[in-house]
Amino acid sequence: xxxxxxxxxxxxxEYKNDLYKVVDTQHVKxxxxxxxxxxxxKNLRTGKVLDDTWTSGATIVIVEIRSRPIQYLYSAGTEYHxxxxxxxxxxxxxxxxxxxxxxxxxxxxxxxxxVREDNENTIDVAFPTSVVLDxxxxxxxxxxxxxxxxxxxxxxxxxxxxxxxPFISQGERIRIDxxxxxxxxxxx
Length: 188
Prior knowledge:
Blueprint: E1 2-3, E2 12-15, E3 18-28, E4 36-43, E5 49-55, E6 59-63, E7 65-76, E8 79-84, E9 90-94, H1 95-98, E10 110-116, E11 122-126, E12 130-138, E13 152-156, E14 161-164, E15 173-177, E16 183-187
Antiparallel strand pairs: 1-6, 2-3, 2-6, 3-4, 4-5, 7-8, 7-10, 8-9, 10-11, 12-13, 12-15, 13-14, 15-16
């Protein structure tokens, strides 16, 4: 059995009859009293973040996971179809699991599927931290406002809208941070 000393950022644990990804941990040794561990956990089913504490040395259940390379094929209603690029097996994933990534997904995009080692159940998708997309619509920047950083709205090939610097025009390719949804750079 694992203990709280084994808690690390990024691991998946079974806690309160659900699976949680460890987002942040702190081992705290106060001047008075016993040491404890404070952790921020993200529920993999609902996406909610939970803060919890354990006494130092308490037992936890670490879930062994492995990744499988997959490629996005197409969507049909609320189901999204992928192909395992090693076995060519077709995999269907529900919209709820992919909701944060939908604004950035394009056909044939490669990513990783995270599955439990013991029963092959899907846990999560390891989506790229940034994507390169084509700008399909670009509006003119507002004139006269040069005191701050000037931006203008654009729409990319997936339909996602974001603010970019005024020199970006239609037909260009830009890199977008998928965690924040913000512009990173122009790509040649």
